[in-house]
Design goal:
The structure holds 2 protein chains of 2 kinds.
Chain A (H helix, E strand, L loop, with lengths): L9 E5 L2 E5 L19 E5 L4 E5 L6 E11 L5 E10 L1 H26 L7 E10 L2 E10 L6 E3 L2 E4 L21 E2 L4 E10 L4 E5 L4 E4 L5 E10 L2 E10 L3 E2 L1 H17 L4 E5 L1 H7 L1
Chain B lengths: L1 H11 L29 E12 L4 E12 L9 E6 L3 E11 L5 E4 L6 E4 L5 E4 L2 E6 L7 E12 L14 E13 L4 E6 L6 E5 L2 E11 L11 H4 L2 E6 L1 E4 L2 E4 L3 H12 L7 H12 L4 H15 L1 E2 L1 E3 L10 H7 L1 E2 L1 H14 L5 E5 L19 E6 L5 E3 L19 E5 L4 E5 L9 E10 L5 E10 L1 H10 L4 H11 L5 E7 L1 H4 L6 E8 L4 E3 L2 E5 L21 E2 L4 E10 L4 E5 L4 E4 L3 E11 L2 E10 L3 E2 L4 H15 L2 E6 L1
The chains are: A alpha+beta, B alpha+beta.
């Protein structure tokens, strides 16, 4: 029995509340244990009693990215991006900042998310890391390669820059072992786009709400149009840690829809007078 | 007090000293926090190697290394792996860990080593075993000290000296070689301005190389491999003895002669094989076809198992041994194939090579044992090259890991360097022809016909040849950047029949190939075959040349049948990007009112470019990615 344990952490009771702490990990915090600790149950050895304590993430892991962007006439993008992370994501990103510096961290954000062309430049305006919380503001611009695509008369672009997966992470048709997410998470992405003068909004993606039974996973995507502003809100939530092989099909299906939804385009049409001047 | 000075005194002695007992504490082993400025991986305080060569057959190799382990990433600096058996024996090993203040924490105890046979999946039995010593600690930084001695009995190869590991700062590293004056040491320093200082001590010549203050090597994306750029000293004896045989390394010809002598008298074929071989070659319609038939006969009869026995694995097995057991290592199998060809009067010669996809070529003006593999060269019938260890590789194709490098051809009269075939973008080709039927939801049914050659063939061979259907499907699921698809049927016979440019067929059902937004469908111009490379943010101070593993050519042609009631609203303009190192083109056109055709091609002509061209390469790939993402827009009428 004793040989099944290989680590020790601390449990603190204050009044009604309890807190878990791992002193060996500089990158964790109160109730945010390193991922390797989140394994089943731990045995609490008290002064005069023992009990099993469930080892799971107690602090929500959230990431919210807010982007205010301007699309120019030539299809280039300038944006102000606010990234706010809480919980495990904050710890993970904090470590990345520490190990790779600001440019390494930004590079990984874009390599991970921004498949739509290459970011030409960025600069950080404010950045703050508290234990368990991370707040960053950066300015990005895509000056050389066009962000929006032109096809004949139409201009179109994918507004979902962050949160987008290149392909379904669950690509195999079958699975024998359960899928184990290290922790539950919620990712939100709010993007505001200012459309250039002389363009009208031809089409925006329809609202979508997709939930797995019992709310164990949720996808929301809403779009709102206000004159020459488009606001796109996307939210992805995973509320269950472990998915059995039987549930795998549904999880895979769910993620197919997630990838598909995040591939949808916004279509712009230049107004007739604009057509003559841009050619 | 006195005892401490005694130990410190011992530490300062140069050459051939052995420390019997590592001290309780030693301020020299303490770790100053300033060292983090030099490397947060590891810092080598001292790395001293003494090679004492006594005869052309025997030498003692003594290493003493003091490494400060600065963080978790450098934990494996505490692992020491020493092979023994065959031609080397471990004489002694001492090791210890010291805290950051120089206090002894733990010594290596007698029984502390893991003893493992070097038999791996493909090595059936070997003389060589390894001992693994491990010294780890939990609080960083700390210091690991190792002091070991090995006896070498057979000096075909002398150990190469690598002063520095990845990400590591080296304060001092030194190689000292002592050799009787009547023996000649050959040496070469690479990737450094260092040269040997020579002296004479008694009857011996002494060569000394000193490295000081080596900063960690900057690693740049798409640069050469670490083993290529790290400084090193190559060593070889002009005349060596290995077991019962003696040889010379003063020229490639002489080295080859030694190898040739080892192989003499080992190519007698068993009677039944002689009969088969005569029949097969006799019934072929041309010399080339006959050679091909014999090659496939050999492939079907044997399996590759590496057996490294005897003279450090240098003596090929008797052709009869291979025949009896049905397996053999690369030397035995190549010898077997050579025996078969010689029997019917076809000239064929073994060529020693340094195999490996990212391995640099051998140093051509330094005759020495730089090899790890042997292939067969058949100069006649338009020159044929044969890889004898694979049962799935096609005729006259040796795999990318054997290509474009120098090898030592061994012939009865002389041995000399030859160059193996170059597989560039003319040979490394992937071609996909796809027919898709799109429905109004964006789902497709498609037929794909893919042909592979060169590097792409290598990938295919290692991932799907002789694998189960399940494993094959699994691999394709990872290859295609498609969501939610199902392989309805597949024909992989091209691989199974060892075609030179195998063609695979697949029928696939894929949902959401095209994205539906309202009454529009967006079809990506290139969905199947996206460029995986993520280009890092460019670096203007780049000093390393750009080094891609291979140059290549990819062509994708698709015909898409549009769903009823939809027409093309917009399509990307044709584009063609042409540079001196690469080419990309995308062309979309209407075939008729119901079908569109897409042609996409990408060619990377040069796999090596000077550092100043890196930015151009980044721009090229950025444009490729940007154009690949373009969509054809369909609208419902």
């Amino acid at each position: 029995m004793v040989n099944q344990f290989n680590h020790v952490i601390t449990h603190v009771s204050i009044g009604e509340d309890s807190y878990l702490l791992d002193a060996t990990s500089p990158s964790s915090s109160v109730n945010i244990l390193p991922i390797k600790d989140l394994n089943g149950n731990g045995l609490l050895v008290g002064k005069d009693h023992e009990e099993w304590v469930k080892l799971e993430s107690r602090v929500p892991t959230k990431q919210t990215v807010t982007m205010n962007a301007e699309l120019t006439e030539t299809g280039l993008l300038n944006a102000k991006v606010d990234i706010y992370s809480e919980g495990h994501d904050a710890i993970k990103d904090g470590m990345k900042l520490k190990n790779e510096g600001e440019s390494g961290y930004i590079e990984s954000i874009f390599n991970d998310h921004f498949e739509e062309g290459v970011i030409d430049s960025f600069h950080v305006e404010t950045g703050e890391v508290e234990i368990g919380k991370l707040r960053y503001r950066l300015f990005i611009s895509n000056g050389k390669t066009a962000f929006s695509q032109r096809s004949g008369d139409l201009f179109y672009f994918n507004p979902t820059i962050f949160l987008k997966e290149e392909k379904n992470p669950f690509s195999q048709p079958e699975r024998d072992i359960p899928v184990d997410f290290p922790h539950l998470f919620e990712k939100s992405y709010v993007a505001n786009f200012v459309i250039p003068q002389g363009y009208s909004i031809e089409q925006v993606p329809e609202p979508k709400i997709l939930t797995m039974p019992g709310g164990i996973a949720e996808l929301r995507r809403l779009t709102q149009v206000n004159n020459n502003w488009i606001t796109v809100v996307s939210k992805l939530k995973i509320n269950k840690k472990t998915f059995s092989p039987e549930e795998y099909q549904y999880l895979r299906d769910f993620y197919n829809h997630v990838v598909d939804t995040h591939n949808e385009q916004i279509v712009l049409r230049p107004e007739p007078s604009t057509m003559n001047s841009t050619e | 007090m006195k005892l401490r000075y005694f130990f410190i005194g011992l530490l300062i002695l140069i050459g051939g000293c052995s420390i019997q007992k590592l001290p309780e504490s030693n301020p020299e082993f303490s770790v100053s926090p300033l060292l983090f400025l030099k490397s947060d991986h590891s810092v080598v305080k001292n790395y001293n190697v003494d090679l004492e060569i006594r005869t052309n057959e025997r030498a003692t190799y003594h290493v003493r290394k003091v490494t400060h382990v600065m963080g978790n990433d450098a934990r494996d600096m505490g692992e020491l792996i020493l092979p023994y058996g065959g031609f080397q024996e471990i004489v002694s090993v001492e090791g210890a860990i010291y805290s950051s203040s120089g206090k002894l924490l733990r010594r290596l105890a007698k029984g502390d080593a893991k003893d493992v046979s070097l038999s791996s999946g493909y090595t059936l039995y070997e003389d060589t075993r390894i001992k693994i010593y491990e010294l780890y600690h939990d609080e960083y930084p700390y210091t690991v000290v190792y002091d070991y001695k090995i006896e070498l009995n057979g000096l075909l190869s002398l150990p190469t000296f690598y002063p520095q590991n990845r990400n590591q700062y080296v304060e001092s590293a030194r190689l000292n070689v002592k050799i009787p004056q009547e023996l000649n040491l050959q040496y070469r320093e690479l990737e450094s301005e260092n040269s040997a200082s020579k002296s004479v001590i008694g009857q011996d010549s002494v060569f000394n190389w000193q490295y000081k203050e080596l900063a960690p090597l900057k690693s740049e994306p798409y640069g050469r491999s670490f083993s290529e750029v790290t400084p090193k000293v190559l060593l070889a004896l002009e005349s060596f003895k290995m077991g019962k045989s003696e040889g010379r390394l003063d020229s490639w010809d002489n080295f080859g002669e030694w190898y040739y002598k080892l192989a003499e008298g080992r190519n007698e074929l068993p009677e039944n094989v002689k009969k088969d071989v005569t029949n097969i070659y006799g019934s072929a319609s041309s010399k080339r076809e006959g050679i091909r038939d014999l090659y496939e006969y050999m492939q079907n009869k044997t399996r590759y198992v590496s057996i490294q026995l005897g003279i450090g694995g240098w003596q090929p097995f008797d052709a009869r041994f291979v025949e009896e057991k049905g397996y053999g290592d690369c030397k035995a199998l190549t010898n077997y194939m050579q025996a078969i060809l010689n029997y019917v009067g076809v000239e064929a010669y073994p060529v020693l090579v340094k195999n490996g996809i990212s391995e640099a070529d051998i140093v051509t003006d330094f005759p020495s044992n730089q090899f790890n593999h042997v292939i067969l060269w058949v100069p006649e019938a338009d020159t044929i090259w044969l890889e004898s260890t694979s049962q799935t590789i096609p005729f006259n194709y040796i795999g990318y890991s054997n290509s474009d490098r120098h090898g030592l051809a061994i012939t009865p009269d002389s041995s000399f360097l030859v160059k193996t075939p170059i597989y560039d973008y003319h040979i490394n080709k992937l071609s996909n022809k796809t027919h898709l039927k799109l429905d109004r939801q964006g789902d497709v049914e498609m037929n794909i016909r893919s042909s592979y050659s060169g590097y792409y063939l290598d990938e295919l061979l290692s991932n799907i040849a002789k694998k189960s259907n399940k494993d094959r499907q699994r691999w394709f699921h990872e290859q295609f950047a498609l969501n939610f698809f199902k392989i309805k049927s597949a024909d992989f016979s091209g691989i199974d029949t060892r075609q030179n440019e195998p063609v695979l067929y697949m029928e696939i059902e894929n949902s959401k190939y095209a994205t539906k937004t309202g009454n529009r469908l967006f079809i990506p111009a290139n969905k199947l075959n996206r460029l995986e490379k993520k280009l890092p943010i460019p670096n203007e101070d780049r000093t390393e040349p750009v080094n891609f593993t291979y140059s290549f050519q990819e062509r994708d042609s698709s015909v898409i049948e549009l769903p009823e009631g939809f027409r093309v609203e917009a399509a990307p303009d044709s584009i063609r990007i042409s540079t001196d190192f690469g080419l990309y083109s995308l062309n979309v056109r209407d075939l008729d009112k119901d079908r569109i055709a897409i042609e996409r091609a990408i060619i990377l002509k040069e796999k090596r470019l000077p550092p100043e061209r890196y930015q151009d390469l980044v721009d090229f790939f950025a444009q490729v990615k940007s154009n690949d993402r373009k969509n054809i827009v369909l609208i419902e009428e």
